[in-house]
């Protein structure tokens, strides 16, 4: 009964699932991967729970979420009279999946004349790279994609996006460095609707720390510009989060949710070692689901996020 | 709410401070909280364990039990141990013959390229002749980014396209530096994971051909537990000589700095404190530890105030204050100066004891309230600003309409202004606001009389 959730046969796994699992293999060799080995023992002992707690904290899961996850798992283990450690392991993984699942569908592929997606995040989280990969991802799925270079602040950000646009084979709408990002959004929407006849417009924004009031206000303005031109735009606002971020991930997600209306997360640089634990926190604290993961430096190192594959990849089968 | 490490330790020690003497159990309770707070601040698990043990050993000892104010003593111990852990500040390595090579290494997105330009600007200001080297041949437009930054600060950038191997670029740049007498060469390397074998080999090669005086690891202040692995990974392949912590201007608690410092043993050299190129500060352990402990960072505030506030205007205003001639014009000027200092919550957080208030003030509300106040004063005529007594009902209605506020808002501001005026006069009578310039003391900026009128904080707190 426990294996049902994790019992996907190899052939049922999608390309995305496989990519996600592969990229997390290094993670498994790291800290959270030790979880599997501590459940190798036959008996469930208090030491096992303590060890689990240590590992979760070291994996950036966060003290509060760690406590909650442990409590939920232990309660179920006791209530369901589970004796074998390997069954308790499955309970733990199911509880982790529960922390990550969402009922809210992703609004990008809904039938609509033009879908507008904003991509936001702190400096250096990997926004431009993720946008390049995302453009290629949706182009493969038959969408006509246009990119808007609304990071007009950082040196060479526009050039960087243009290179990614070339790689993905999509057009980039840009103005001169230093121009008003709101104006870039306006132009890009006009161009997408009129001459380019695009289905999907992805807007690259400048990196900003969530504590910078004026820059967060600027995001609000850009959203207003989009909403005036396209009904209900932006349809998704994705926060790009570096997987090696620690507990500050919560602060970032909260601030960007409040002022930029973040609806989902792109987790980047997931090809490192002890990474991604912080993500368990965010869904629990803020209800923002992870939508995509970036798993490497190549253009197709990008996958749709599936909680079951993620947990399997994170802690092992 | 998500509390910062400062807030957490503050609340722990607030609890301790209310008690007379500390029992061993008290210390244990506090230490549990310290441990949790440090973990939430991304300090590495093992580092936290050691740290807490050390503090506990000292805190439960006789030293604390016999002291008169045990709570203060514990704070002091934690503070001292934090400073100890953070280590001594260290300058750039300038031994050996020039050109001195500085190699910046780190993960993708840590902020190496920006930091290279910041260091170059700093060195240039110190009279050096830096050369920037674009050795990131992988990230799209990384070379262009460094070139744009170099142009901004008027420092030459050596690049050789994306086809040339990084070690060749570094070698050629060094040759150029010798020919053209650049005495510092700053190499911006590509971001990489410490487990990426091919790219780590590249770093080793760059190191071999350039023999850097400094290899600095650039670490994002937001990094989690992974920071330790990153630092160990890089240190094993290219022996680090220092650390630079970036994005410290966010609300990340920067526990990674503690961890990285502890596992590598190399000193923290600089902090990146903003997006602009002059935003670079030498690392100061006392300051950082003080900030972590909620002791405030008055030194930073005073420095920033000195940089941003026009000394002449401040002196003129001080005179008017002492003479009791404080009007709405002065008030407006003060508001502008305070605004120039940065976000309000940042300012409050730097003042000892004010950190708790900073948490309670909604920054958005406070900024909006500031804006509203400015709008109201801007809607007054010069005559009204100079002489608020003439503000009758009709004038107030006009001001409200002109500033997009209500008459109540205007009334409230006038009332608050009167109270401030009264307090200023009292201060003037008491002989306050005397000049203590040139004495870079630890006094509160509010006591200098130049800015931060008493009651100004009421204005923000009152409405938010």
Q: Would you mind describing this structure in some detail?
A:
- The complex is a heterodimer of chains A (317) and B (464).
- Chain A is of the alpha/beta class.
- In chain A, 49% of the residues lie in helices and 13% in strands.
- Chain A has 14 helices and 8 strands.
- With 464 residues, chain B is of the alpha/beta class.
- In chain B, 56% of the residues lie in helices and 9% in strands.
- The interface between A and B is large, with 52 and 51 residues.
Short description:
The complex is a heterodimer of chains A (317) and B (464). Chain A contains 14 helices and 8 strands. With 317 residues, chain A is α/β, with parallel strands linked by helices.
Keywords:
heterodimer, A: 317 residues, alpha/beta, 8-stranded mixed β-sheet, 13% strand, B: 464 residues, 56% helix, 9% strand, globular, disordered N terminus, disordered C terminus
Euclidean distance between termini CA atoms of chain B: 17 Å
- Computed over alpha carbons, the radius of gyration of chain A is 21 Å
Distance between the termini of chain A: 16 Å
Q: Helical element count of chain A?
A: 14
């Amino acid at each position: 009964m426990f294996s049902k959730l994790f019992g996907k046969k190899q052939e049922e796994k999608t390309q995305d699932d496989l990519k996600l699992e592969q990229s997390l293999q290094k993670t498994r060799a790291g800290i959270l991967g030790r979880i599997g080995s501590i459940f190798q023992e036959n008996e469930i002992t208090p030491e096992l729970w303590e060890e689990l707690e240590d590992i979760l904290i070291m994996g950036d899961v966060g003290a509060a979420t760690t406590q909650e996850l442990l409590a939920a798992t232990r309660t179920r283990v006791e209530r369901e009279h589970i004796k074998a450690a390997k069954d308790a392991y499955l309970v733990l993984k199911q509880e982790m999946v529960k922390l990550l699942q969402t009922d809210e569908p992703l609004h990008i592929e809904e039938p609509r004349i033009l879908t507008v997606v904003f991509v936001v995040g702190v400096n250096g989280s990997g926004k431009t790279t993720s946008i390049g990969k995302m453009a290629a991802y949706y182009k493969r799925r038959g969408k006509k994609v246009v990119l808007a270079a609304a990071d007009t602040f950082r040196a060479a950000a526009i050039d960087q996006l243009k290179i990614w646009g070339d790689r993905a084979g999509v057009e980039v709408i840009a103005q001169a460095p230093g121009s008003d990002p709101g104006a870039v959004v306006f132009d890009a929407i006009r161009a997408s609707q009129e001459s380019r006849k695009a289905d999907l417009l992805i807007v690259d924004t400048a990196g900003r720390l969530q504590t910078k009031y004026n820059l967060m206000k600027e995001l609000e303005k850009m959203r207003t510009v989009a909403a005036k031109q396209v009904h209900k735009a932006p349809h998704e606002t994705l926060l790009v989060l570096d997987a090696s971020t620690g507990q500050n991930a919560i602060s970032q997600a909260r601030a960007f949710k409040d002022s930029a209306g973040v609806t989902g997360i792109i987790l980047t640089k997931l090809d490192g070692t002890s990474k991604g634990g912080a993500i368990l926190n965010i869904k629990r604290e803020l209800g923002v689901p992870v939508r995509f993961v970036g798993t490497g430096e190549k253009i197709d190192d990008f996958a749709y996020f599936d909680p079951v594959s993620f947990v399997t990849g994170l802690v092992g089968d | 709410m998500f509390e910062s490490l400062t807030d957490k330790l503050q609340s722990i020690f607030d609890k301790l401070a209310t008690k007379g003497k500390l029992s061993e159990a008290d210390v244990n309770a506090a230490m549990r909280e310290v441990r949790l707070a440090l973990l939430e601040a991304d300090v590495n698990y093992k580092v936290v364990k050691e740290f807490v043990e050390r503090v506990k050993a000292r805190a439960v000892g006789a030293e604390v039990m016999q002291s008169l104010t045990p709570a203060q003593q514990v704070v002091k111990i934690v503070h001292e141990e934090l400073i100890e852990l953070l280590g001594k500040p260290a300058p750039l390595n300038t031994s050996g013959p020039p050109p001195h090579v500085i190699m910046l290494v780190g993960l993708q997105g840590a902020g190496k390229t920006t930091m290279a330009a910041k260091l170059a600007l700093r060195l240039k200001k110190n009279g050096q002749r830096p050369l920037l080297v674009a050795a990131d041949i992988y990230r799209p437009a990384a070379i262009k980014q460094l070139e744009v930054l170099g142009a901004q600060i008027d420092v030459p950038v050596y690049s050789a396209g994306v086809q040339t191997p990084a070690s060749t670029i570094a070698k050629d740049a060094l040759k150029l530096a010798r020919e053209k007498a650049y005495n510092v060469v700053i190499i911006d390397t590509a971001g990489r994971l410490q487990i990426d074998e091919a790219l780590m080999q590249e770093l080793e090669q760059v190191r071999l051909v350039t023999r850097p005086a400094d290899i600095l690891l650039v670490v994002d202040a937001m990094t989690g537990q992974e920071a330790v692995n990153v630092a160990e990974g890089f240190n094993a392949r290219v022996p680090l000589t220092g650390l630079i912590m970036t994005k410290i201007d966010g609300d990340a608690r920067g526990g990674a700095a503690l961890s990285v410092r502890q596992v590598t043993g190399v000193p923290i050299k600089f902090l990146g404190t903003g997006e602009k190129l002059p935003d670079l500060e030498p690392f100061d352990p006392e300051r950082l530890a003080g900030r972590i402990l909620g002791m405030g960072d008055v030194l930073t505030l005073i420095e920033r105030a000195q940089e941003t506030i026009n000394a002449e205007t401040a002196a003129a205003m001080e005179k008017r204050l002492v003479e009791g001639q404080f009007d709405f014009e002065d008030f407006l000027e003060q508001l502008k100066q305070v605004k120039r200092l940065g976000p309000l919550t940042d300012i409050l957080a730097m003042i000892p004891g004010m950190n708790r208030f900073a948490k309670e003030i909604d920054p958005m509300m406070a900024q909006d309230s500031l804006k509203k106040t400015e709008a109201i004063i801007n809607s007054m005529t010069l005559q009204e600003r100079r002489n608020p007594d003439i503000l009758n009902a009709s004038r107030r209605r006009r001001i409200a309409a002109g500033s997009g506020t209500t008459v109540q808002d205007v009334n409230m501001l006038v009332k608050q202004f009167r109270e401030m005026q009264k307090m200023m006069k009292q201060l003037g009578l008491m002989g306050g606001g005397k000049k203590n310039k040139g004495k870079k003391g630890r006094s509160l900026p509010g006591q200098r009389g130049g800015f931060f009128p008493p009651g100004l904080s009421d204005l923000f707190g009152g409405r938010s």
